[in-house]
Structures are given as structure tokens and as C-alpha cells.
Specification:
55% helix, globular, 47 residues, protein kinase inhibitor, Helix Hairpins, protein kinase inhibitor activity, mainly alpha, single chain, Sda_sf
Length: 47
């Protein structure tokens, strides 16, 4: 899933949670976030 930048990945996760998308999709995004060592607490993905 390295085709997404870190910023886009974090934004996709944030939107997926807000829109209550499929839990498996959210978990897939979360797995990739964790593999990249990114933090969901970071504000680096906010506009």
C-alpha cells in the first residue's frame, strides 16, 4: 500500500472512521499506519 503518502493514508483513515466505513477496511488502513510507524495522535495530517 506504499502508493499512498503518509498524509493521504492518515486522512483516509480519519475519514473512514468518521463515515463509519467497513470495519475490515478501517483495520487494513490501521495495519498499514502501524507498519509505517505513524501516530494517529499527530496533527500532521490535518489541513
Amino acid at each position: 500500500m506504499r502508493l499512498l503518502s503518509d498524509k493521504v493514508l492518515l486522512e483516509a483513515y480519519k475519514q473512514a472512521v468518521e463515515l463509519k466505513l467497513d470495519e475490515q477496511f478501517i483495520q487494513l488502513l490501521l495495519k498499514e499506519i502501524n507498519q509505517r510507524g505513524l501516530s494517529l495522535l499527530s496533527e500532521s495530517y490535518s489541513a
